[in-house]
Amino acid sequence: MSDKATDTSEAGKTVPFRGGGFLPKSRRIIAPIVFIVLIGLWEIGTRTGIISPLILPAPSEAFTAFMDLVNSGLLWQHLAASLQRLLIGWFSGTMLGILVGTLIGLFSVARSSLQPLVSAIFPIPKIALLPLFIIWFGIGEGSKVATILFGTFFPTVIATYGGIDNVDRGLIRMGQSFGLSRLSIIAKIILPGALPAILSGARISAAIAIILLVAAEMIAAEYGIGAYILLAGSLMATDQLIAGVAILSCLGLVFAWIIGKAEKYFLKWRA
Known about the structure:
This protein is mainly alpha-helical. The protein is built from eleven helices and no strands.
């Protein structure tokens, strides 16, 4: 009798849902706390002499240098020049990379001819090609934009055709069995399935673009965050140098935030 009661109670027990998969949730409060703690320890270490101010100035000194840059009006000149180069180079490289990556992922002739070329050129440090770009495009804006474009193009190509290769072939066969045209299969199955990889590639290429931006601006640029950092380093003005690095960090955060919003918008089906 007791066994029957036990079975009945176990049968009526609510079983928790275990099919949610691995979906880590963002704890927005944690990141600001970590930043505040690290900056606080940095400030204390500099004020107490544990960290030499000559090597690493206090965050308050870097903030003062940043405010001086804002008040002088030079911040907007440097930022405008950098953003113009960054956006043109990154956007052009990303769009061309998606186009070429799609061709490689969909067509055998393009894969056979272009994939070995991409694999051969991709490992070359793009900053090593900057002198060549200066010869080709001059020492002005052309060489700087070309460096960023070239550096962001190849990661996007690889991410795009890699994402296309990983699309579930069962979905493609299902579309074919329902009589969908080739164009419909590409537009409704292949490209949406490859979009997570494409956006991940865009996130990586944005970081590469900022790195190449700084390197390109350190060569014959009057305005730009890279030129500002180079000038601060040559003057041993470490507070200004840290302020410039902080501006680049903020640029990276803004790009990551924009791409994150794009992922949430275009990948609602993945939730």
